[in-house]
Write a structure and sequence with these properties.
This protein is an alpha/beta fold and 364 residues long. The protein is built from 13 helices and eleven strands. The strands form three sheets. Strands 1-2-9-6-5-3-4 form a seven-stranded mixed beta sheet. A two-stranded antiparallel sheet has the order 7-8. The longest helix is centred in the middle third of the chain and has 21 residues. The chain binds nicotinamide-adenine-dinucleotide (NAD) and zinc ion. The site of nicotinamide-adenine-dinucleotide has 31 residues, from α2, α4, α5 and α6.
């Protein structure tokens, strides 16, 4: 079992990662400084159907445990589901020292984390992530639900007590979810580790190659990269924004295709290509975007997803982003692989890059 320690101003906590990591959860809970009074598991119902008994067997018998099931995936991050969770938490009479356990992908983790952050102004929680993407979402303490007017618009920073990341859970992921989650690994490599990017491009030739010990290595490296950034900037006033590489354009793709239709990471993959073109345009980035795109295409990423929408529609959504102001849109670009920076892009610049992107797509 491997461990990565996440340090923030508010909390230092372990990410325990590896096959069988969930076997550590009982011991961890019983050894917590303030031993929890009881447990409240918020579980993605689809994940529970496949892996619920594994987690159930590992939770300490000595603690009363309530289970609350939420709809699979993104639809869990809604006001009605949030309210139902809080109602169930009140009915279970959780107190300040009760422990919430989030069991599922990034969506369930974001929801359960926000429930823990809001209940009595904040009670402890543990993340038990079950997707590849969650190597990103479970670490760093961002929690949120969606508002009909915007994704992740209602949320809080609330660090977990621990992340127990059992990679055996990942085997049941669909190809689509595998591909989606792995896009965030590629993002971590692009913003922080050119060697990792090289290794990934050499090892992964199609989505079936995203598995085993190489996947574990990538996840651990991704978590290390994310936690180093979070350590420096817990509340996103500076470098943490680098983690949004590919996301400004990616979020617009997600919004216009309808949340849940295009997987988050698929949209981000397309957004990363746009950001690479933008980096070439603004800063002469020297990077073979074409072969990078060819490689993504071989792994069946929908690299052209954004071009299904008009520039005006994409621009309108991008200016609604939390990071936009005036008419400009804040983008993370690269000086080179491993060296991100933040810049504001004007509508005219974005339009030029968009035209170039569309021209390239037509030749792929
Ligand atoms: P998800 O949680 O929506 O899960 C995707 C699908 O996979 C769901 O249908 C789920 O039921 C299923 N699933 C989960 N684990 C499974 C398993 N082991 N086997 C089979 N099926 C399984 O998707 P996700 O990609 O993990 O997370 C996306 C969410 O994460 C988005 O809401 C995004 O906003 C959020 N996110 C948050 C942060 C953060 O810092 N908090 C960072 C990145 C993304
Ligand atoms: Zn993301």
């Amino acid at each position: 079992m491997n461990r990565v320690t996440v340090e923030t101003a508010h909390k230092t906590y372990p990410v325990i990662i590896g096959k069988g990591a969930v076997q550590e959860i009982g011991r961890f809970i019983l050894q917590m400084k303030k031993k929890p009074t009881r447990l409240f598991v918020i579980a993605d119902e689809a994940v529970y159907a496949i892996h619920g008994s594994t987690l159930r067997n590992e939770l300490p018998d000595s603690l009363q445990t309530d289970w609350h099931f939420v709809p699979a995936g993104e639809s869990a991050k809604s006001f009605p589901v949030f309210e139902q969770c809080l109602t169930a938490m009140l009915e279970a009479a959780l107190d300040r020292h009760s422990l919430v356990v989030a069991f599922g992908g990034g969506a369930c983790g974001d929801l359960a984390g926000f429930c823990a952050a809001s209940y009595m102004r904040g009670i402890p929680f543990i993340q038990v992530p079950t997707t590849i993407l969650a190597h990103d979402s479970a670490v760093g303490g961002k929690t949120a639900i969606n508002h009909p007017l915007g994704k992740n618009m209602i949320g809080a920073f609330h660090q977990p007590e621990a992340v127990i990341y059992d990679t055996a859970f990942l085997k049941s992921l669909t190809e689509k979810e595998t591909r989606s989650g792995f896009a965030e690994v590629i993002k971590h490599a692009l913003i922080a580790d050119s060697k990792l990017l090289e290794d990934i491009q050499q090892t992964i030739k199609n989505v079936g190659d995203i598995k085993g010990s190489f996947l574990e290595h990538c996840l651990q490296r991704g978590i290390e990269i994310k936690s180093a950034i979070v350590k420096e900037d817990e509340k996103e006033t500076g470098v943490r924004a680098f983690l949004n590489f590919g996301h400004t354009y990616g979020h617009a793709v997600e919004a216009l295709s309808g949340y849940g239709k295009t997987a988050h990471g698929e949209a981000v993959a397309c957004g990363m290509i746009f950001a690479l073109y933008a980096s070439e345009f603004k800063n002469n980035l020297s990077f073979d975007i074409r072969s990078f795109t060819e490689w993504l295409k071989k792994a069946d990423y929908h690299v052209e997803a954004g071009t299904a929408f008009s520039f005006d529609d994409m621009y309108a959504v991008m200016t609604r982003d939390k990071k936009a102001y005036g008419g400009t849109v804040r983008f993370v670009l690269l000086n080179k692989v491993g060296e991100p920076y933040i810049t504001d892009m004007t509508k005219e610049e974005l339009q030029k890059i968009d035209e170039h992107f569309r021209r390239e797509v037509s030749q792929w």
